[in-house]
Specification:
The radius of gyration is 17 Å and the shape is globular. The chain is built from nine helices and no strands. Helix 1 packs across helix 2, helix 2 packs antiparallel against helix 3 and helix 2 packs across helix 6. The protein has one domain: Rna Polymerase Sigma Factor, Chain: A, CATH 1.10.1740. The N and C termini lie far apart (34 Å). The chain has 179 residues and is an all-alpha fold.
Amino acid sequence: MSQFGIEDFPEILQQARQGDESAFRVIYRTYHGNLLRFLRARLRSDAEDVASEVWATVAKGLPTFVGDEAAFRSWIFATARRRMIDLYRRQAVRPQVTSEVDLEDQAVTVPSAQLEIDEAVSALVANLTPEQAEIVLLRVLGGLSAKEVGVLVGKSEASVRVIQHRALAKIAENLKDDA
């Protein structure tokens, strides 16, 4: 297993393209955790729904996907980002009220260790601007390069690096203040 994914990715991808459910499960298990952390840090209560939409899109588009593992990660997180934007637009047109019951139900269905990790990730990016948070999450959880993130967010690679540097400095300062 590599840092962000699967050692024999081309073979697993080919098997998944041919309809091998166990190969798709390997892909899902490898990337789902970080995808969900990214979504939870940005969305909170709708993260699982958006993740489901992302995986449905991935399953549908897998036969025509072309690229290596880095391109695959980029595709997954780009799809997640588009689904988040779609959700924001829907909510702007038809605002939803979140009740405490929804949040309690979510806590019951998610293992406590997973919740702790998700809460820690959310806390780390909580004081960042939305742009900084998105860039840091895409770089760290998505394992995307500065160039790939730049393409996703419409910024140059250099701008992504500067924003990431400032965001990480802000996180470090916040951690120092908490200590």
